[in-house]
Amino acid sequence: MSTSLDEYDYVVVGAGPAGCLLANRLSANPQHRVLLLEAGGRDNYAWIHIPVGYLFCIGNPRTDWCFKTEAQAGLQGRALSYPRGKVLGGCSSINGMIYMRGQAGDYDSWAADGNPGWGWDQVLPLFRKSEDHFAGDSQFHGAAGEWRIERQRLSWPILDAFRSAAEQSGIASVDDFNKGDNEGCGYFQVNQKAGVRWNAAKAFLKPVRHRPNLTVLTDVEVDRVQLDNGRASAVISRCQGQPRTFRARQEIILCAGAVGSPSILQRSGIGPRPLLQSLGIGVAHELPGVGGNLQDHLQLRLIYKLENARTLNQIAGSVWGKMGMGLRYLYNRSGPLSMAPSQLGAFARSGPEQTSANLEYHVQPLSLERFGEPLHAFPAFTASVCDLRPQSRGRVEIRSAIAQDAPLIQPNYLSHPQDLRVAADAIRLTRRIVSAPALARFNPVEYLPGDSLQSEEELHEAAARIGTTIFHPVGTCRMGNDRDAVVDAQLKVHGIPGLRIADASIMPRITSGNTCSPTLMIAEKAAELILNPTLRSTTTPKERVTTT
């Protein structure tokens, strides 16, 4: 039987973290012919690899889709930039490089909702499998994998002082956030190797590009999935501007992310009937939940002016300082150019009613009015704090059947009253930490939002004014068994044989931390399910509810 050059066993859509890992795992069997499609280009842009280069990658159409949200009522009508990686490695090529899993309870709650095999005890081995951890193999970490994790290569006195202040405020110092309970304060571990960004393309694609059964194509934008007799059989795309169809003998796996995957489904006629009909798209298979359940971490950036402190504001504010930064990086890959965007982290509870840490801090020895603008001329640090378990829910919807038209992104930030309460409590907690004795010698003064704002209503207004995304969208193709679920616990799209989704869009609820490495875990799980089709949990999933 002859095989078309455009026919493969597995077609993986999207070469972000999940797609890179899946392409690696599926092509390990030489009998599997695997195709990986990426809408962006190669990761050969120098600023991808220099850690501080995220400043030149986010908002750059060479590496970023440059999406925008709808105007947010909860943010005083502001529309936010919504970066998503458009390059090999996806968001791992432009993100903050923080290695974070979340909390054991995140995954146990997924399993408790009828998704067997997704509890902490089941996913921990999947995290460990892909890890190349600086501390070596242990109960909680692996060292034989591809995903390099290292300590950061610098520290700052002001950050050390914040850590001490957090401890004085009841937030213990910890060395590792990734053992299932991340409560505490410490320096983030990062996905770097010797001071250079370690993205998913380097980790999972570069070592296996020699495999003759693996094809990686860039500049290929997928329009839709083609169904034959109800089964996913091919993807319709444009390859360097020309129409092209790629057929899949076994499966198509969408790894296009929380914005891309629901958009592809909707253009394929898979999604909410009212939306599809309003756009003149035939309803191939009604799945009301496609594009819904959007969740994201909204950060509040509190800025404090300082005395008796040297921060990046002064260092980067002079020609000599910039030259010194460059020379230090060239010499030994250290100094500010090796910095992740956030160096110090803290996980805390916004109030005594919380059973685990529900806030995450990203603390930085710098400040600026907004992303993309120059650093302030005065010494300062930023304590960004986000609600790890927001109750607000949004949606992603295509605006037309044309793939090149940017989708509607409606996060609905701060639309739930509980999120407003947590935001106010987060500002109060930050102020308590900053007023602790360990920071007194720096005489911190609140520059943003301003300490004159004290009442509950004033703090709600402050959150609406300074809140901005921390770029963790998830949940838009939710895993589950109810009517609004999109995939089952095997990551198979309900009612569509031959089609799976393996990316952050399948998360029922957002993880309690940064989302890149949990996305890799999801892909590792998908590979396990695909390559071992008889693998099942001993737990019986809840029956899917399909009635209206």
UniProtKB/TrEMBL annotation:
SUPFAM superfamilies named among the record's database cross-references: FAD-linked reductases, C-terminal domain, FAD/NAD(P)-binding domain
Record domain Glucose-methanol-choline oxidoreductase N-terminal: where: 257-271
Gene3D superfamilies registered for this protein in UniProt: FAD/NAD(P)-binding domain (3.50.50.60), Glucose Oxidase, domain 3 (3.30.560.10)
Names of required cofactors: FAD
InterPro entries reported for this sequence: FAD/NAD-bd_sf, GMC_OxRdtase, GMC_OxRdtase_N, GMC_OxRtase_C
Pfam families attached to this UniProt entry: GMC_oxred_C (PF05199), GMC_oxred_N (PF00732)
Keyword annotations: FAD, Flavoprotein, Oxidoreductase
UniProt protein name: GMC family oxidoreductase N-terminal domain-containing protein
Protein species of origin: Pseudomonas gregormendelii
